[in-house]
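User: What would this chain look like folded?
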Amino acid sequence: MSNALWMLLLALLVAAVLAVVRRRLPVLFWWLVGYPAVTLRVLATYRATMDACGLTVPASAMRRATARMVGRQAAPVPPRRSLPLPTGSGLVMRLRMAAGQAPEDFNASADRLRHAWGVHAVHVRPTKPGRLELRLVGWDVLADVRPPRRWLRTEPLTLPLALREDGHWHVRDFRTVPHELILGATQSGKSVYLRNLLCGLARQPVALVGIDCKWGVELAPFRPRLSALADTPDRANDLLDVLVDEMEARFRLIGMRGGAGPDAVLTSDVWGLPEKARPVPVVVVVDEVAELFLAASKDDEKRRDAMVTKLIRLAQLGRAAGIYLEVCGQRFGAELGRGATMLRAQLTGRVCHRVNDETSANMALGDIAPEAALAATRIPAERPGVAVVGDSSGGWSRVRSPHLTLEDAAAVCRDTSGLIPVLPRLDTFRPVVPQPSAAPVVQPATRPVTG
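Assistant: Here's the prediction, encoded as structure tokens.
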């Protein structure tokens, strides 16, 4: 066999191995092949690409005069850049913008830069006046999202819940964004996001309260870790009464600590209290908010108005008392009834999975960023778990939570059942956890003696 044939077979073998690595281990493929290739492409075509995208400025008068002295024409000047540094999902460059340039210019050219350099996406982030960060993503990181191998260091009540399209993790911080609205149609991945949230909170000293008026079918698997569970509208109304009483008691505690005396503490929320006197945080999860608004009679309307009023009070005042809301639903608009819009306005964080119509996306994200609502309408049905996350600051990003089965989530809640804090007001609503029944003892069959 000739050397040329051996070289051909070896090249085919290397190509096949790289194809498998690219599919199964995209991070390894990026470090071996992707990063060197993209870096060389960026360094070789940086000036021409910036000029083609309209991101250059005319040369200075000194440079033009120097060029005329040697009989040349001064070329346009691109922004100064740093060396392309590798990241876990791409590379990053820091640019110093020229006079007259703005980050919006680079945002408008992000898609052209993506095609010119052959990467999956380009993200622009201003870092300080006159400087920005250009992050290139080598592949579709949302195609296969897995939990981080090293758990990210986070503070209490902060959870890395989903991977963003730029390779960073979306961290849910309850102290910064106290209340959140989660929207999504059936089979959109909303339940998987909620499982990751509950499992992350179950590992922390937090009281979990569930309101699931669909007879508890969604939150029942998490009963071992729940401090309270309401599975009917009547029970939900009573539970909200108790939560409002708990909130008022915490405000009285804050006021007592802030009075005159040697133990006086000047604070307006529970986080300013000493750790020994600080009440445990409470996270209230409402699985299907529309069930709280539905009414078939005048009695139901009175109960609905009472529940909505209590939810609005918790949303307005609960942050200072350490009580936080996670409101889930398929649709949340003014047509649900009186108080729906006011309650939605108090929910700072927004997570919108695939929805059935554009109006639902506008309900979640339209008052934050119109382009975020447009992005939510383009989530494909074959990608459950992909969502658009935004907050009142106007920032938004596509994310995808790692897949977590219901069995694994229920196992986490069983293993952390010993972390349920003591809250006497919620004892009446503590869900009953069925004990596993002993397996029946089966006697081995005996064969008749013959002979």
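The first helix runs from residue 3 to 24. If you want, I can go into more detail on any region.
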